[in-house]
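Subject: sequence -> structure tokens, single chain

Hey, anyone have a minute? Need the predicted structure for the following. Not urgent.
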Amino acid sequence: MDHAQRAERATESLPPFVATMPRAVKMMHAFRYGGAQTVAPYLEARNDELNAALGQVIRASVLLGEGAFEELRALCAEYANRNADHQLRRGILGAHAVASALQGLRYDNDAWIPLRSEVAAFAAGERSSLLTILMSGYVTAECTRNPAAAIGLLRELITQHGLPCDIVSIPVPIALVYAARLLDDRESLARLATEGALWSDQQPMLRAHVALARGAAAAICGRNELAAPLLHEAHAQFQSLSAPYFAGLADQFRGAQTSRSEARPANTTRREREIAALVADGLTNREIAERLVLSERTVEGHIANLFAKVNVNSRTQLATWYVRSVSPVA
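Reply:
Had a minute. Here:
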């Protein structure tokens, strides 16, 4: 920060586009080290075009941390079709993709439409920190559309999250945990819980996100001795950074720390848990059959098996079982 302040003084007599750089660094520093409250004055200032644009990317991250998803969706809609700076647009879309994943929005939801051009860029081989964040949210859509492809994509994204990110990127690896859980990919969950698998440094915002993802993955795997201190750290950090939504997620995973057999009932299959999730979403047997490309009779058979396996006798009780036993953040 001292270097940035010196640079700002040194560039006062230089062309404006040079003077914007240290102000941008100070804005990012304020967000990464102090969170929403510290960066607020920078977002309000908007004293030049570059910082006004960067401010919108940071604002998207602030809205994500606050759980203000409707406001974030409106910001995304504002920039999705605007002829704006490509990195600006990608940064806002990335926050929107993570929010959509955390909300459990499925592939056919309109929220994913603005992201498809970025998905195509990733498929064509383009790689960047902002694109990695965006794809980390989008992979949950692939989980419901093409699980086999989603596992490959998820594992590549975990590798990407192990690399240093650029200055404007704020990785949110909890989205990868959601995808791994949805895919029942225990290998990826174990990898996400491992120290060093996710890149970080001493910046509080990055440390908090890594602690949350590692702790959540460990909790789902039943490794409570590892999960508890990580989730405690994440909760405390996010509270101090004014990111109540992520602090709440840390609390929910702390409250949902269960044994592996409780988090993933041993006598239920992935397909049965997927159907239970759709029952919990309120879908009828016919709607579930259409969604999963199954016959209605097959769906009925899976639900009958679930009734017997988890000892319930109604769809409402099945939905309650799913929320309490399988979905740690529901």
